[in-house]
Structure formats: C-alpha cells, structure tokens
C-alpha cells in the first residue's frame, strides 16, 4: 500500500514565493525516492478556509454541534489520512500566514488529533506522521534573544505539531528580504535535495 503525502502551500506570492519553490523541491525529492507516493496538493492561499467560527469547524469538532463545514471536515480527514505532510510556510509579520493558521484550526480537534487526560495531561494522537516545513523568513534569527522576542513561525509550528504528537522537520531559508534571497534559496534547495527518503 502506497504512502499518502499531503502538500500544502500558504504563500500569497505565487511564483515569486521561496517557500513554494522549496516545498515543491521537497515533494519532488520524496516522490523521486518513492514514485508510489500518493500526493494530494492544496493551495491554502488560492483556496483558503474561512476564519474559524463554530459553524465553519469540522463536524468532528465539539464546537460544531455535530454539523460543521464540509471543506473543514475534508481538511481534517486529509491530514489524518496523510503519512507525510509537506508545508510551505512563509513568515509574515513575525508569524505564519492567516491562511495556514485557519488550516491548523481545522486539524486541532480533541479526540481526533489530541486528547486531554487526568490532570490536564495532553496526549498527541497524530504521532507517526512525518511533517516537513519549508520555512521562508525575511530576516535572520540566529540571535537567541531576538528569536525569542520576534520569531513566532518556527516556534509556533514546533509547538503546535508537538502538541498533537509530531516532531516537525524544517528546511529554512533566511534573509529573503535582507539581500540574501538567492543564497537562502540555493541553500534551502540543496537541503531539500538531500532530504532522507520517506
């Protein structure tokens, strides 16, 4: 049985996007290593989910009252069915795009991707999935003090996927808006080409 790969992009920049180029290179690397991978692609910028409301949540979410939105339920089902998830994630204004955040709101569902236990202990129910993030940032975040104050993309994604039991992998292109676009893209594409197979 072939593995399922879910490929998501969230950049609003189209062909100019670094994260889109790198996420595509990651998928190309993985599918070259395993041509049997079943790839499902979703462009969250071109086909965005709405901001979260009780009515727009998946039917599986307690807030929906068992009704929910079909597209939101599909987003959750696609994530749960995937063995590998590749995400193109630019950092906008020190965080992730709202389109990606809306998707994350659909996959964090109690009883489906996480559960609360005794004393509030959280169990991630999505363990075993491989999540690879192509992260593009305009500046540089090597200074730990600056990163703690200003970096809310990688840190958020590490935390939110960790919450549901996944340790994500990152390929990062830094300095996109600081005169290092080509060097950052070249380095990230090299890392994508060296990624271990599925």
TrEMBL record:
Domain Flavodoxin-like fold: from-to ranges: 5-192
Query: What UniProt keywords are attached to this protein's entry?
Result: Flavoprotein, FMN, NAD, Oxidoreductase
Q: Does the keyword Acetylation apply?
A: no
The record's section on InterPro entries has: Flavodoxin_fold, Flavoprotein-like_sf, FMN-dep_NADH:Q_OxRdtase_AzoR1, NADH:quinone_OxRdtase_FMN_depd
Q: Which Pfam families match?
A: Flavodoxin_2
Q: Reply yes or no: does the keyword DNA-binding apply.
A: no
- Binding of FMN occurs at 11, 17-19, 91-94
Task: State the residue spans of region: Disordered.
Answer: 51-70
Residues passing through the membrane, by range = none
- Top-level taxonomic group: Bacteria
Which leading EC class covers this enzyme? oxidoreductase
Task: Provide any one GO MF term from the record.
Answer: oxidoreductase activity, acting on NAD(P)H, quinone or similar compound as acceptor
Catalysed conversion reaction: 2 a quinone + NADH + H(+) = 2 a 1,4-benzosemiquinone + NAD(+); N,N-dimethyl-1,4-phenylenediamine + anthranilate + 2 NAD(+) = 2-(4-dimethylaminophenyl)diazenylbenzoate + 2 NADH + 2 H(+)
Cofactor note text: Binds 1 FMN per subunit.
Instruction: Tell me its cofactors.
Output: FMN
- Reported EC number(s) for this entry are 1.6.5.-, 1.7.1.17
What does the similarity note say? Belongs to the azoreductase type 1 family.
Assembly and partners are described as: Homodimer.
| Function summary | Quinone reductase that provides resistance to thiol-specific stress caused by electrophilic quinones. Also exhibits azoreductase activity. Catalyzes the reductive cleavage of the azo bond in aromatic azo compounds to the corresponding amines.
* PANTHER family per the UniProt record, alphabetical: FMN-DEPENDENT NADH-AZOREDUCTASE 1, FMN-DEPENDENT NADH:QUINONE OXIDOREDUCTASE
Q: What is this protein called?
A: FMN dependent NADH:quinone oxidoreductase
């Amino acid at each position: 049985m072939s593995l399922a790969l879910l490929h998501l992009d969230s950049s609003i920049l189209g062909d100019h996007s670094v994260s889109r180029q790198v996420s595509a290179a990651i998928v190309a690397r993985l599918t070259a290593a395993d041509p049997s991978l079943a790839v499902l692609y979703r462009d969250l910028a071109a086909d965005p989910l709405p901001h979260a409301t009780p009515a727009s949540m998946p039917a599986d979410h307690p807030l929906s009252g068992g009704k929910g939105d079909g597209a939101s339920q599909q987003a959750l089902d696609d994530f749960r069915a995937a063995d590998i998830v590749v995400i193109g994630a630019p950092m906008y204004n020190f965080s992730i795009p709202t389109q990606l955040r809306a998707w994350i709101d659909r996959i964090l569902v109690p009883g489906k991707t996480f559960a609360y236990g005794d004393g509030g202990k959280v169990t991630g129910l999505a363990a075993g999935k491989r999540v690879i993030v192509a992260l593009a940032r305009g500046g540089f975040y090597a200074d730990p003090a600056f990163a703690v104050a200003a970096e809310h993309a990688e840190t958020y994604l590490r935390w939110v996927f960790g919450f549901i039991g996944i340790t994500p992998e990152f390929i990062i292109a830094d300095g996109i808006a600081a005169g290092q676009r080509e060097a950052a893209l070249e380095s990230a594409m090299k890392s994508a080409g060296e990624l271990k197979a599925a």
